[in-house]
Amino acid sequence: MKSVLHQAVSSPLGAFAALLVAASLEVLGDSFFQSGLYRSSGGHRALWFALGVAVLGLYGFSVNLPQWDFGRLLGAYVALFFVVAQVVAKIRFQQSPSVPIWVGGGLIVAGGLVITLWKG
Questions:
Q1: Residue 27's domain spans which residues?
Q2: What is d(CA 89, CA 110) in angstroms, rounded to the nearest whole number?
Q3: How far apart, in Å, are the Cα atoms of 31 and each of 57, 82, 112?
Q4: pLDDT in tens, 44-99
């Protein structure tokens, strides 16, 4: 299984897909904790915490299972994390990004592209 996964993440599209899955799991896990802390009580709170633990565990597994140069892919990961976080904030919490978030996010994405694409 590891060799198939390593082969999959060795291509740019495979690495992008794996990083997108990891970023999605991390953002969703964090959002479940936020729901448990600030948007629920009693049994629902415990359920949100349990979901957060499970999803963040899957995130840790998904981001560390592939044998890749994660430092090299960190720029793409941070940019994907930002984009996924904004999508989840809008869908789950009806929070729209402000102008500073758009500007700062543009810088994050630009930095991710520089780190990922600069061959030097």
A1: 2-117
A2: 21
A3: 14, 13, 23
A4: 999 999 999 999 999 999 888 887 877 778 888 999 999 999 999 999 999 999 99
Summarised one tens digit per residue, pLDDT across range 27-39 is 999 999 999 999 9
Distance CA 64, CA 58 (A): 10
Total structural domains within the chain: 1
DSSP letter for 11, please: S
Q: Are 41 and 31 in contact (CB under 8 A)?
A: no
Instruction: Assess contact for 54 and 80: CB atoms under 8 A.
Output: no
The amino acid occupying position 100 is P
Backbone angles phi, psi at 111, to 5 degrees: -60, -40
Measure the CA–CA gap between 63 and 105, rounded to whole angstroms: 22
